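Good day; I would like, with your permission, to put a structural problem before you. What I wish to show you is a protein chain and, alongside it, a tokenised description of its three-dimensional fold. I would ask you to consider whether the tokens describe a fold that such a sequence might reasonably adopt. You will find the record immediately after this paragraph:
***
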Amino acid sequence: MSTSPGLLARLAADLDDAGVGWAVLDEGPDAVTLLVAPEGARPAVESLDRCGFAPLRRGHLAVDPAGRWLRVDVATELRFGPGGALAAGGAAGCLCRRRREGDLWRLDACDAFWVAVVRAVLDRHAPFPVRPAGITPAALTGAPVLADLGPLLPRGAAEAVRLVDAGDDRLRAGRLASTLRALRDDPSAVLRPVTQRGLTVALLGPDGAGKSTVAAGVVADYPLPARLVYMGMWQGADRPDRTRLDAVVAILVRPLKAGWRAAVAAAHVARGRLVVFDRYTYDALLPVTGPLAGLKRPYFWVLAHTAPRPDLVLVLDLPGEVAFARKGEFTPAELEAVRRGFLALAPRVGAEVVDGARPPEQVRADVTARTWRRHRERLAGVRPSGGVDHRQRRPQAGEVQHPGER
């Protein structure tokens, strides 16, 4: 099992200390479903909260210090079919017959077999179980749980055991009828709208800080739906063949591009997704130097405010010499000036500073942990603690020029 053993063991101990009757109903590579008595549902949620789990639309999620994620669903009854629309009794009996295995309570072997059979009948992607060693067909056909699960089997229990032993999946023939029944009984159980808003995270920093690598890594490894949105505004600004007409067109189109990308991100957030921005419009808050500074300031101010404030802003900080050695663009002095500009800007936009000089794996783990901490606060309905209140702060101009544009 590749789930986080530390998180699961801690949760198991807390549930036992709280007097909750529970057992593992199902488990996968990074997810566990626990069966609890109805009266234990609230104490179970309280245990999850104490162990650092955040509530999702379905289930709870947490990450351990090693970066391994664990999702826990809590069920108070046996449910099958699309969206769990088919309910069956038997939960109380299953908990009475549970057995201890190490740190965990598990279902009785016969109960676990029939739960897996019914799940496989109603879900063509679920495999049929293997009959437990030492358990005879007679013991399975006489299992008490069949009083509740038997009606969900297209054929009798004895025939079901025979077909499972033979590796014959003809039991799935009743899947369509059961699915239609689930849709008829509770259509909303199959088609549930997203009710939780997602989260936006912006990564800032000089060229060579590893923003793109970190952003892509966080999005790839995040256990919830996530999207990457590039918000760089100075693309092509240092092209050798760039004409004045190209520069004018870029000036006019740049706010439209930023606004469009912000709109795309908002659509993802509305569907409950995490959005990680590689760069952000806050790059325009770095100071203006060079010719026409008086004309640039109002333009850059408008550009900086084209997109809404992210939920979390992270500045990847590393010395200019290190950034130059990584990417070889601009000069160490220019990159160091940009670095100082972002550090000066950080408190004004409520950004957290991340040590970007470490190996990429460590930086990514740090960014993921900070993202999850803010996401967990959002999911739990907790206002972020510390720092400046994003709803009251308005970004102001910084003091350093971005070498790619000005």
